[in-house]
Amino acid sequence: MTSPYYRDEQVTLWLGDALDVLRGMPDESVDCIVTSPPYYGLRDYGVPGQYGLESSPAEYVEIMRQVFVEARRVLAKDGTCWINLDDSYAYPPGSAGRQGNGQRQGRTFTAEGLRGTRAIPPKNLMLIPERLAIAFQDDGWIVRNRIVWHAPNSMPESVTDRLAHRYETVLLLVRDARYAFDLDAIREPQKTAGQRHEGRSCGSGEGWPSEWSAKTRALNPKGGNPGDVWSIPTRPYPEAHFATFPLELPVRCIKAGCKPGGTVLDPFSGSGTTGEASRKLGRRYIGIDLNPAYHDLAIKRFAQGVLDLDPAA
């Protein structure tokens, strides 16, 4: 590998194609991956070699599979990998398709970005996150969670023949059945914490139907499991490019999935949101991006210093 684009005591930024840079990184050299790859067919970033404008969904899935083969190699055996993805609709070549759903403003379909998708009838949701999850699973990853990121402040869509899109997907992948995970770090407050909770579970019990039995358990005083639906508003970062996700999203992933003092990797670093979250939480950060302008923006962002996190983050 050549010299990094930028390095300080906590951050290292590499300029180049994610797959090429990952191939030059040592085995098991990072503890956590938090990233959001370019979505298929939704935006032309104007950079040669960019991902997302492949000629078909199958080609996109294959290149992402190759990237995450290398990502799995550089991830520690007990590490976690969090991938934020969104879906897109098939439209005939030459048509405009839907605009960004408000979570990533400014995205549009282009005929060029959707070449080769005529095998999928127009107006079909292409199920890109599901296709990727299955490909990753077939490739050896353990798909531990499929998280729904709901953006309550997402912008309305003008569509009238389907429901408006209000969420994106976050896949939690792991290499091994045993991995580092700190649920306590992301528990949510419960009004009844410490009390006992009564519910039903399968099994027999006196006075209950044969298929049910009464169960009671003490609620965890540290709070409840946040579950796999995360309601996190978008929070645009001034000067950031259109693909910025809210800081609270990588913060939650890193708190749960990266051991204290560990290293976080984002192979699609962009404006450095994952890097900012890593710095705030005292983790080291490695970012990769093809566009030097995004790295410049991230460096400017990091130079602003580490502010206190929102207690609710």
Overview of the molecule:
The chain has 313 residues and is α/β, with parallel strands linked by helices. The protein has a single domain (6-188, 221-302), classed as Rossmann fold. Helices cover 20% and strands 22% of the residues. The chain has six helices and eleven strands. A nine-stranded mixed beta sheet has the order 1-2-11-10-3-4-6-5-9, sandwiched between helices. It starts with 5 loop residues before the first strand and ends in an 11-residue tail after the last helix.
**Class computed from helices, strands and strand pairing:** alpha/beta
- The overall average pLDDT, rounded, is 83
- SSE arrangement, N to C: EEHEHEHEEEEEHEHEH
Beta-strand percent range: 15-25%
Write the layout of secondary structure elements.
Elements: E1 6-7, E2 11-15, H1 18-23, E3 30-35, H2 57-74, E4 75-85, H3 128-138, E5 142-150, E6 167-174, E7 196-202, E8 212-218, E9 229-231, H4 248-257, E10 263-266, H5 273-280, E11 284-289, H6 292-302
Helix pairs in contact: 2-3, 4-5
Please outline what is shown here.
By secondary structure, the chain is of the alpha/beta class. It has helices spanning 18-23, 57-74, 128-138, 248-257, 273-280, 292-302, and strands at residues 6-7, 11-15, 30-35, 75-85, 142-150, 167-174, 196-202, 212-218, 229-231, 263-266, 284-289.
